[in-house]
Each structure stands twice: as structure tokens, then as C-alpha cells.
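Record 1 of the preview.
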Amino acid sequence: MTIAPLDLFALDNHSTEEDRAIAAVVKDYVDTNIKPHVADWFEKGDIPARELARDFGSLGVLGMHLDGYGCAGTSSTAYGLAALELEAGDSGIRSLVSVQGSLAMFAIHEFGTEEHKQAWLPGMARGEIVGCFGLTEADFGSNPSGMLTNAKRDGEDWILNGSKMWITNGSVADVAVVWAQTDDGVRGFIVPTESPGFTANTIHKKMSLRASVTSELVFTDIRLPADAMLPGVKGLRGPLSCLNEARFGIAFGAIGAARDCLETAIDYSVNRVQFDRPIAGYQLTQKKLADMTLELGKGMLLALHLGHLKDTVGITPEQVSLGKLNNAREALKIARECRSILGGNGITLEYPIIRHMNNLESVFTYEGTNEMHTLVIGNALTGIAAFK
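->
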């Protein structure tokens, strides 16, 4: 008799029956509609993004933890578990949902006017409108305060100029939430992608997140009305609070990729025979599997604890950093170890491991690098900011 890695930890009392039911629906969709195709999407470097967005809208996972405006209003833990199941399919698929819901929709929901919310959120929740989030620039990733994108007043209007880099959904988006320097500090703007002067250039030749649309956005004298600005926040607190929402999902999502790798490695090791016995019967293989199960379970417990905090007393950015730092790091280690168990077969897209491993190299870096989250925690412990 065997047991699944996470079942060893008997985790059901850390989530509600409703949370698990939502996750089960997402898992069924991923198993049926994502996993059979994602290796081909990864190899081609393309996905049916708009079709997937409509499917995810029908599933109710777009902005699922937001209230009203067609959003499902689930718990944060349910959202985290859904992100886990999506990333068990592929990190790029989870990124599509995360950018739509936790970045673009969250920004409008938290900082937009009632008119903004009514105009954009219902269509985005249904997946009929695809959004993206423009913060990172080619020369300003970890230090967004240095951004060069700017918006200047021209009468009642705004004139937007600049560019953003590594933008998920950018080339298929209908609307972009763009952060820009103004005379009043950093402000957010709702920018329809059909606006004259808006260009989205798809980034090719990626070796990671290939089943995802990644783009450079370029803004050339885009004229925006006065009410394009999000009035509810000024400064970097706005985009950084959106990133905290997305990082929370990553803390769960990375566990999904790691779980898929580990389950694949266990199944492979049981069936792969060398020297007249399954390689699962050798002590070195069992040590690898046991060690990875421990790290997977600890990461899952951390994610569920963060979900409980977020759903009850609230969660701090430093606590989100704990989850993102640990789980992205450990998931990547698990993927690499699982790849070694599969030997030469581990580098082919016949199995999901090398795809997850390549994707996790990006997850390790984006939404705050490993180094930056380390220093956020160090700052919390010492009161000294080492990154300024």
C-alpha cells in the first residue's frame, strides 16, 4: 500500500470542505484540459490564452477571492489551493490567472472608482476581458521606484510615455494597469490596449514560462482622460500591495509544481527497473523521495498557515515573503532532484519535470527575487534595510 506525499501530513483540518471542493474542480479541469496539451504549448511557445481565460471565467477563478462585480468572493485559502492546482498543470497557466485576478483586477477593485469597477471587473471575472499589469521595466525590477515610465498632465488629460518589460498577458490583453511617475508620485492608470500609441511586443526565445504570453509594453504619447487614473492610492504602496496578493498565490502555486514533479518521480521510480529491481527499491532513491516529501509538506503547511492568517487576522508583507522565498526555493530544489531520478528521461517533455523545473527558475525570480525576499525578512529581524 502506498500513500500520496501530501496525504502523509493529514492536512484536511487546515482548510474547509468548501475550499477543498473548489480545488477539486480546478484540479479536474487542469487534468482534463491542461495537462494533455501543455507540453505541446510549451514546445511551441504559445497558448490559447483568450480561450483559457474564458474557461477560467466559467470556473470562477478569475479574481475569485474578490467580492462583488461578478467575482466569486471565496476565501484566500481557496484561492491559494486553486493556484496550487493550476501550477500543478503549469506555472504559466497559474500566471495567467494570477496576473488577471491578483494584479490587474485587484488593483481596480482596491484603488479604482465605482465606475472603474463596474466598467471592467465583471467582464474580467468572466474572462471576456483580459488584463495585464505594467510595473517592471527593463532596467528597474527590484527597484520599481526608479521607473522611467511617466504620465504628464496636458489640460485635463494625461500623456503616458515609457515601457514595461516581462509583462504576462501583455500581447493578448484588452486593458493594462500601468504604474507611472507623475508630479504627484507614482500613480496607477487604466490603459485600454486599443489606445493609440500602445504597442505590445511578444517576447520569444524564452526557455521558461513558454506556455505563457510574455510581452514588452511600449507607450508613445498615449492620451488618457483624467479619470483613467486610479484615485485610491499614491506611491509604491499601490503596486506593492498588488504584488503581495500575487506572491501569496505563488506560495501555494510553487507547491503544486513540486507536487506534480514528486508524484511523477515516485511513479517513475516504482516502474523503472534497473539491476532487476525497481529503482524505488534502492535506499538512495527512497532517501531522495523522503527528503523531498518532507520539504513539500513543510511548504504546504506554511502556505496553509498563511492562508489561515489572511482569512482571519490578516497577513503582513514580511509573512508573504516567508512563503514566497521558501516555497519557490524548495520547489525548484525538488524539481531538480526529481529530474535526477528520471535520468535521461527527465529532460524530455514526455514527462512534466523539466518543464516545471524551467518554469520554476522564473518563479524563483519574479514577484520579488530570492535575494529581495531574503532581505525583506532580514530587515524585519534587524530593523536595518540592507537593500537601500
